[in-house]
Amino acid sequence: MLNEIYDNTKKQMKKSIEALKRDFSTLRTGKVTTNIVDHIRVDYYGTPTPLNQVGNVIALDATTISITPWEKSMLSPIEKAIQSANIGVNPNNDGDFIKLYFPAMTSEQRQQIVKQAKAMGEKAKIAIRNIRKDSNKDIKELEKEKEITEDESKKAHSEIQKITDSSIAEVDRLFSTKQADILKV
What we know:
Distance between the termini: 51 Å
Number of domains: 2
Strand order of the largest sheet: 3-4-6-5
Number of helices: 4
Structural class: alpha+beta
Strand content: 5-15%
Shape: elongated
CATH superfamily of the largest domain: Ribosome-recycling factor
CATH topology of the largest domain: Topoisomerase I, Chain A, domain 4
C-alpha cells in the first residue's frame, strides 16, 4: 500500500521533471536549435499542424534555421505562422525555403531568458510540492482508517520527503545547467 504511494509519487514527480525539460528545450541559448520552432503550428489545409510535419526544419549553423516545406504552396502559411508565433525573428522567404536568422543575443536578452528558465523551474517545484501534499494526504488517510500505524505513517512521510528533496534537487541541477548554457557566450 505504501509502496504504491511511493511509486506513484516518484512517477508523478518524474513527469514534472520531464515537462520542465521540454519547457527548457524551447528556450534559446547561445546556439540556436530547432526546438525554438517546435511549438509553432501551421495552417495545413484548415488543420493546425506542427511546423516539423509540413517541412524539413534544420539548424544550418549557430544562428540560422532553415525550413524547407514539402509542398511549395506551404511557404506562405509557414511564413505567417512564424510571424504570428513572435519568436523574435522575421522569416526570409526565397521561393524555395525559409530561413530564420537569429542575431547574437545581448546580455540583457540572456538575463531575460534566465528569468524565464527560473520561472519554469519554480513552476516545476510547485508541481512537485503539490504531489508531495497529495501523497502525504493519502498516507494520513491510511493512518486515519487504521490501515497503518502512527510509526509507519511517520516513516512514510519521511520517505515522501526524501523523494521530494531528490526531485527538487534535480530541478535545481537542470536549472543550473540551463542557466550556464544560456549565459555562455
